[in-house]
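The instructor's notes for this session suggest beginning with a concrete chain rather than abstract definitions. Hand out the sequence below and ask the class to guess, before any prediction is shown, which regions might be ordered.
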Amino acid sequence: DYTGLLRRYVVLGNWIYDLVNTGVFSTFIMTVIFCASALVGVQTYDGMEEKYWVQTADLVILIIFSTEIVLKILSETTRPHFFFYGSPNWAWNDFDLCIVLLCMPILPLGNSAAVLRMLRLARALRVARIIVLLPNLRVLIYGIAGGLSSIAHTGILIVLIVYIYGLSGVFFFA
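After discussion, reveal the predicted structure:
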C-alpha cells in the first residue's frame, strides 16, 4: 500500500525487524551484556576506571546498546511509538532506554562521587536486560514476585505459631 520513500522505509523496517528478532542478534546482545557486567566489576578496582582500554570498552558497549535501541525503534516501521508503549515489551524497552540514556557521557551530571556511583549502578543495571532476552527467566521472576505475598503470609503464620508456643512455654514452665 505504501509508495516511494515510505515503501523503502517499510521494507528496511521489516528487514531490521527480522534482524532484531533472530537468535544470533539476541545472543550477541546477551554476550555484550555479560561483557558489560564484567567491565563494571573491573571498574570497581582503584584506578581502573581511568584506564584507556576500560573507557574504550565502555564506550563501545554503550554504542552497541544505543544501536540496538535505534534498530528496535526502526523495526516498528510506521509505528515507532510502539517501542515506547504498545508492544508486549514496552516496559522493558523503556527500562533499556533509561539505562542507556543514564550512561551517556554527554549528560551534564558532574563528577561528584555520588554521581559516579549512580552511573556505575546504572551500568550494573544493564545486567537486568538479560531478563528481556530470556523469556524463561522472566517467567521465573514473575512467579517469584507473584509468590512473595504467599511467602510473607506463611512467614507471619510461622512467627505467630512460634510466639504462641513461646508464650505457652513461659506460662506453663515459668
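Then share the key points. Helices lie at 4-20, 23-43, 52-74, 81-84, 90-103, 113-124, 130-133, 135-173. The chain has a mean pLDDT of 84.
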